Model the fold of this input.
Amino acid sequence: MHFSPSDTLTVIPGFFNIVHTENPGIAFGMLASAPSFWRDLFLIGFSVSVLAFISVLLLRPERTALHSWLLKLGLAFILGGALGNLYDRIVNKTVTDFIEVHAEISGSAYYFPAFNVADSAITVGACLLLLDMWRTRERKGQAAEVGR
Done:
């Protein structure tokens, strides 16, 4: 099946569609209207920097390695999502978004901006990092109470 830009396939009426949108910018279309050369140079450079930073964190020698499995998993999700969007940006000069979630409430439709699997991976990874920070804080709090 081929989707042209702005084609829509309703999967779950009133909730979920498959669409074809192209986002030359970043989240929620930010930077989409910036000059393409500078925008692409900045976004590709930023993505490569993030990929390098996360790779260094994940590949550190064992004595200084990350010990939390949640932190490692969260970074891996972010790494995979950033790599997917970087590939799309290099090959197509834009990121293809195709998941559209919306709700119809009292006759009004509310749409969340379209996104893709890579965006979802980055979001899940960020949530895992937040969960790891919360758990680490809880453990430190418990250890401080035991030490009193």
Residues 21-146 form one domain.
